[in-house]
Amino acid sequence: xxxxxxxxxGLKVSALSFGAGTFGGSGPLFGAWGxxxxxxxxxxxxxxxxxxxxxFDTADVYSSGASxxxxxxxxxxxxxxxxxxxxxxxxxxxGPNDAGSSRFRLIRAVEDALKRLDTDYIDLLQLHAFDAAxxxxxxxxxxxALVRDGKVRYVGVSNFSGWQIMKALAVADRHGWxxxxxxxxxxxxxxxxxxxxLMPLGADQGLGALVWSPLGWGRLTGKIRRGAPLPERSRLxxxxxxGPPVEDEHLYRVVDAxxxxxxxxxxxxxxxxxxxxxxxxxVSSVIIGARNEEQxxxxxxxxxxxxxxxxxxxxxxxxxxTAPYPHFPYRRQEGFARLNxxxxx
Length: 345
What we know:
Blueprint: E1 3-5, E2 12-14, E3 16-19, H1 27-33, H2 38-51, E4 55-57, H3 66-74, E5 83-88, H4 103-117, E6 122-127, H5 136-148, E7 152-158, H6 162-175, E8 180-186, H7 198-205, E9 208-212, H8 236-239, H9 248-265, H10 269-278, E10 283-288, H11 293-300, H12 309-319, H13 328-332, H14 334-339
Parallel strand pairs: 3-4, 3-10, 4-5, 5-6, 6-7, 7-8, 8-9, 9-10
Antiparallel strand pairs: 1-2
Helix pairs in contact: 2-3, 2-11, 3-4, 5-6, 9-10, 9-12
């Protein structure tokens, strides 16, 4: 297993981490992901630990806390050997203070998560969404207090825009509060929007990317192919509307390239897709999920080997899309590119 620093922190995380969204699954979204119970979860954790995975990711909103509870039970007796990442801010109820990142909400959310996870501390706490109603000073001062109390060790965000992150970092620096070191982002060969603003920001400000849904919301598993119907057992039948959209032709173009590279390397389509991500700039860890041992073992096979420059170029070309404004001039016009060569391409 390869280990990388989490952003500009001193914490090392495994290149592949495990996402516990399938643990205790219930409801239309998480129930479709998986319904892993404690016994099954222990076995998946065993496999991860044997492979060198040290980071396990969850969130309070995953199956209304059941994911955290199952993960905590599965890690019992070996808590000090792993890193736990969880997220909060999305609604956990219908009450006026059951959502967001207010001081009231964050303190209660952390206390609740600690109980469900059966632990005294959270290694990485991430805000699951930007709370536009709560002053950033209130959010960051609360996170500072949680770190000082020893309940949280590192902080990060997920699903934030670039300006939201940069504003928070500026305020943190002004007051000497903990800086965000992680940004949990959607990033895949069929969803490269992360590269426009958030990747350069991460490189400049020291945020390591934790990649969620690296297989494009289940579209890069090797089961979806050009000219073939969606498999009957695909969870996309129930969950496609929850995930990031993708045009069919773009998807098939990427899948065609993945299949060609998979044939060359003797690897599977998802292994190739994950290996491409592991090598991308600013990526600290790629979060893999699995409903069973077979899926997990296959995903873990995405590391320990490297795509060639030619294979990477083929995947880059197949997955490329037109850059949005204000990025496209730097990729199309020499005068713009001379001012910022890192954006040219």
